[in-house]
Design a protein that fits this description.
CATH topology of the domain at 53-131: Arc Repressor Mutant, subunit A
Radius of gyration: 20 Å
Number of helices: 6
CATH class of the domain at 53-131: Mainly Alpha
Distance between the termini: 38 Å
CATH superfamily of the domain at 53-131: Winged helix-like DNA-binding domain superfamily/Winged helix DNA-binding domain
Structural class: alpha+beta
Length: 166
């Protein structure tokens, strides 16, 4: 393949060919942003009644699955900058949903751990999370949903380096 060309199901695409009119409605960043914005808006509507936002949810969902997690790993898994994550952790600590402690292994690392109150909150929100996902994938077969998920994961891997599990 030459520079600027990729093979699509409809044949090669030349990204440097300015004679073809640009159609924003087929532009992947536009489509991804449009879908993400709609998903976030729908999901946030169900979080508000619980007094948390999507960043709080993201951290709680990760901790609910992993348990105690080093701060740096959590920042990477949650795709959050450390200052933003620190504010989220402060909110969740104030609500009694997480505990922040020093690592026993090296004394320098910070460990974030969900409290007993976190799991019931996550369990209560999960039906809403699944409903938003089902709404977004309505009319798709199970294979199409799996394929979409794999494409989105690959897109993320292409754009954002993934942290190794600790």
């Amino acid at each position: 393949m030459g520079k600027g060309k990729i093979i699509s199901p409809n044949g090669p695409i030349n990204h440097t060919d300015i004679s073809t009119p640009f159609d924003i409605h087929g532009y992947i960043p536009y489509l991804a942003n449009r879908a993400a914005t709609a998903l976030v808006d729908q999901f946030q509507a169900g979080l508000t009644e619980h007094g948390i936002d999507r960043l709080d949810w993201r951290v709680l969902a990760i901790l609910n699955r992993r348990g105690a997690t080093r701060l740096g790993v959590l920042a990477s898994l949650a795709a959050l900058e450390r200052p933003t994550l620190s504010r989220v952790i402060a909110r969740l600590t104030e609500r009694g949903l997480v505990i922040r402690s020093q690592s026993d292994s090296d004394g320098r690392g910070v460990i974030i751990e969900p409290t007993g109150d976190a799991a019931p909150l996550v369990a209560h929100i999960l039906p809403h999370a699944h409903a938003v996902e089902q709404s977004a994938t309505a009319g798709m077969t199970a294979d199409e949903v799996r394929f979409l998920r794999s494409l989105l994961q690959r897109l993320c891997e292409n754009l954002v380096p993934w942290v190794p599990e600790d």
